Amino acid sequence: MKAFCIKALNEVAWMCKERPVCGPLDAICEPIAHAICTSDVHMVYGGIDGGRGDLAGLALGHEVLGCIVEVGSMVKDFKIGDKVIVPAITSDYLTYELQGGLPPQHFKGFSSGQQFSLKKDGTFAEYFHVNLADMNLAHLPDKMTLDAALMCTDMVSTGFWGAEMADIQLGSTLVVFGAGPVGLMAVAGGRLKGAGRIIIVDNNTQRMQLALEFGADEVVNFSECSPIEQIMNLTNKKGVDSAILAGGDENILGIGLSVVRPGGTVANLNYFTGVPTIPIPRREWNSGLSDKIIRGGLCPGGRMRMERLARMVMNGRFDPTALVTHRFTGFDSIETAFFLMKDKPQGLIKPVVYM
């Protein structure tokens, strides 16, 4: 089969790969639609663990909708021809460690549920493999748009995970750093969780306007002056109850701690790269005695989460389709969309490719 792959560090290529083998509990799918993720770019250009040589030869891609072409003999709820939503995180829910409370996305160590392109070939291929089909696939609702379903696979799930980690209470105050696709979905998730006031921090006017449409109440442009100063002024020096980090460099954790009140929560969605340590400012953390909670996590995957997100879309709770700004048709367009995500021109949020 043909696949768009990591050839080497800083290099991609189309390769001929063996078609994946279907186990008794698994499924083989052909793609219906793809989205390109910044993580795909990072895997090639040194963002994942500084550029891992052992990823060479693996197909990229982890945001996909598929049509099943083969199912294992023990799969119960799916059949050939079914159209499915495929979560970016496909954990092994039969793992012994999960009985001890380990989050499924880390079933065999950090981020082990992120199998596409890290443990096996990703989805930028003519066929791709999904382990434990009954647990990791969700039926694509007949009336759900491809754009909305595709955004649920990763961007919605990740952004909402930030809102879930942030301990948002009804009427509480929230700041989201970064108005990329994940940050925008963190805003939407914060609104659905009941935040009474949401502040978005970015410097892209288009994305900040979109954040207002998704539920933000105020914008802070970090290019104009210190975001800490602006947020503290907006909150009458009290700070916010929760902060979600969906952008920024290694200093963003300290900025988040600086604007969260004592007892508040900082929820991190960033994958920090290129630095050995992440600084925590002593004063803002009150020498470690501030009772400020720091949480960070990889979004969950699985069938139930995809079904729940799809249900929210289908019943009008939110609509993620505005994240899609660039559309392409045809398998070979994956390469064009990939380099578009790498270059990030003005106006880009998410590119998608329809087969």
Give short descriptive properties of this protein.
15 strands; 6-stranded parallel beta sheet; 355 residues; alpha/beta; 7-stranded mixed beta sheet; 26% helix; globular; single chain
Rg value: 20 Å
Shape: globular
Q: Structural class of the helix and strand makeup?
A: alpha/beta
**Mean pLDDT, all residues:** 95
Q: How many helices? A: 9
Report the strand count.
Answer: 15
Q: Unreliable stretches, pLDDT < 50, 5 or more residues? A: none
Biggest sheet overview: 7 strands, mixed
Termini Cα gap = 15 Å
Share in β-strands = 15-25%
Instruction: Sketch the topology as an H/E string, one letter per element.
Output: EEEHEEEHEHEHEHEHEHEEHEHE
Helicity range? 25-40%
Explain what you see.
Helices cover 26% and strands 24% of the residues. The strands form 3 sheets. Strands 3, 4, 5, 6, 7, 14 and 15 form a 7-stranded mixed beta sheet that branches. It has a 6-stranded parallel beta sheet with strand order 10-9-8-11-12-13, sandwiched between helices. Helix 3 crosses helix 4, helix 4 runs parallel beside helix 5 and helix 6 packs parallel to helix 7. The longest helix has 20 residues.
